[in-house]
Amino acid sequence: MSRLRKAIGISDVAIAKHCRKAGVPIPERGYWNKLHAGKKVAQTALPLRDLATVNIIEMSGSLPPDLKARIKGEPAIESEPEAVDVLKERFRKRLGKVVLTRDLTRADPAIAHLLKRDETIRQKMASSSFYWEKPLFDSNYERRRLRILNSIFLAFARVGGGTAYIRDRAAREISISGPAGVSITLESPKKRQGRNRQTNDAEARDKLELRAEGGRHHPDLVSSWTDDDAGKLEDRLTEIVIGLAVLSERESRRWQAEMAAWERQREAEKAEAQRKAKEKAEREERERIAAEERKRRDELLTEAMNWKSAELIREYVQARRASPAPQPPGFEQWEQWALEEADQMDPLLNRKCSSDADSR
């Protein structure tokens, strides 16, 4: 790592941090000295993959030419990925039990940002009675939503499954980016069915439903959890986190399969376009050769006809000269003109036609 940091332009501490984040073992101190000295060393195996394993890491810095030469293409993608059920059980063991955070003093950064904004609003309300904005998360309903979301966010962060992002002020547009990336909603089922419709049923209004957006692509998976007779969401947090991670893995594989199918289709379309272009080029070449042959035949026929016409003119002039009838005045001038026309017409005497024929 000391040599890499100099070559890449990134600190060895940063390299070690990235390795720890991805679960990549770092050689123990003195490993390379022992190896170069011919001593026996133990290479730590990579940990088994599960649903929250980081597959791609991006670092700053740049690779020098000698290191670039050692990298052949992109990292290999496993042709036969492990079964999702196997990854699920590994993830379950590493995750453990997900418990509800009773208060929000230990809040995920995304939740802490919402709470900080509410506190800022309270201070402004205290200093001005005309301040229009109100805190959004003071009610028991909203605090419960935040506690559930916070517990899920912290669980994913603890196993390296992803980072939570809340994209709106009311915490309705929620996503988790990373190995177990997924978009979710957490609100009353009544609000989801009709966001602009109010209900007087307090029990129905206080119920919560957590729904994963990608669930419509996987009807065989559980992708939504609702407060019901089986229990509240708080009692099913472990099940929810595992379910979201499984859905994320399946969605990732679906997306990869679609991208692979799209790439195959693109390659097939490219090959078909190349085939058609080749056929067109070959057809145009055949047509060009045929056109040249027709042109040569036409030229040959024209030359033969011109030669025949020149011979006919000469024979006619000779016959006129040999005729016993008296020649009209100016016959000599006409005879000279006629023979010159015959010579101009004769391809055997015409230099241009002869040179063209010789070139062919």
Mean pLDDT, to the nearest integer, reads 88
- When the domains are counted, the total is 2
SSE class: mainly alpha
Instruction: State the order of secondary-structure elements, H for helix, E for strand.
Output: HHHHHHHEEEHHEEHHH
Q: Please indicate the percent range of residues in DSSP E strands (runs of 2 or more).
A: 5-15%
Radius of gyration: 43 Å
Low-confidence stretches: 195-201
Which structural traits does this protein have?
360 residues, 2 domains, mainly alpha, five-stranded antiparallel sheet, 56% helix
What features would you describe in this structure?
The chain is elongated, with a radius of gyration of 43 Å. The protein has two domains: 79 residues, no CATH class; 176 residues, no CATH class. About 2% of the residues have low confidence. Helix 5 runs antiparallel to helix 10 and helix 10 runs antiparallel to helix 11. It is mainly alpha-helical. Strand 1 and strand 2 form a beta hairpin. The two termini are 72 Å apart. It contains twelve helices and five strands. It has a five-stranded antiparallel sheet with strand order 1-2-3-4-5.
